[in-house]
Specification:
By secondary structure, the protein is α/β, with parallel strands linked by helices. 33% of the residues lie in helices and 19% in strands.
Length: 390
Amino acid sequence: MRFSRVFLLVMDGCGAGTAPDAAQFGDFGDNLGDTLVHTARAVGGLKIPTLRALGLGNALQLAGGDPVARPVGCYGRLMETSQGGKDTVTGHWEMMGISVDEAFPTYPAGFPAELIQAYERAIGRKVLGNKASSGTTILQELGEEHLATGFPIVYTSADSVFQIACHEGVVPVEQLYQFCQQARHLLQGEHGVQRVIARPFEGSSRADFRRTERRKDFPITPPANVIDSLHEAGVFTAGVGVIPEVFGGRGFVHAERTQSNPEHHKATMRLAASHQQGFVFVNFEDFDMLYGHRNDPAGFAACLEQFDGYVAQLMSVMTPTDLLLITADHGNDPTTPSTDHCREYAPLLLYSPGVEGGHDYQIRPTFADLGATVAAAFDVAAPVLGRPLL
């Protein structure tokens, strides 16, 4: 079925139940994720009438409401097949038809000394940290030393990332981005981490350090994917939020680096008002960044309820030739002891005024069914991985 516009919204970190291979990714015991279900239960129920109307409460047992009798959307779950990790890049790449068959390198004990030494030579100064840590913890521990020395803070996590934190008043953001580009140049081959991430912050002491909204990601270059096919076919392609960075900027005619869910929504609505044809790919990362990693189920729930309103506004301007897809890239259960991502199914919601709702997709075998659906919507070559939903 052909469409004039497709909107793909990613609820970053909003997993839909423990994946069958979760143990292979370090999830077991109390850290088995069921992000949306656990969050709803923790707060006594979610007020998300639009997402429930689309069928989210039919796909999952969400406290706060019963399944609706006649969903206006189609619903189900997606299983991730890629082995690259339980993270943003692997999830988004698979959506667009890229299978990541080998795990990206991780560094739970910090990066090798020779790699850090090479990086220090490249940027002309020492670094602090070189350990696995959460972003808030590392600033508490090393932020004041960074202020005194000007040495960048390098840290990682359970994901394949090389993160560099610098105070905006000590290292200008553009210089921090240069530091990241130098790291990206070094981190190739066996040390080819998924992402180098700039983590600018502000504040005068550990009492008030705060990461700012000028984060920037420098991912490893992706293989050819659905976005390339759309671009080559002349389809207008727009990436909002972190999306263009995840795909190395390639294939997007319009790239808008918004920094919060409200900004992502405003950008999406502007694109809906100004373009009557094309693919709009948006990542809403506040669920993950602000609440999942900080074990804050109340904040996570409030974010879901806010997002529900965003979806309602977008649906109000859709026509029968528009298609809306909603999913997630991984889990980040705020109710578990861990602050890391979870290997989970992703929710799947599909809506168009021109498509009859109520179909239960149950569990689809790969995130790439999304990319195959987008390709079919514009009649371009589909990826080998994935099958269209319509």
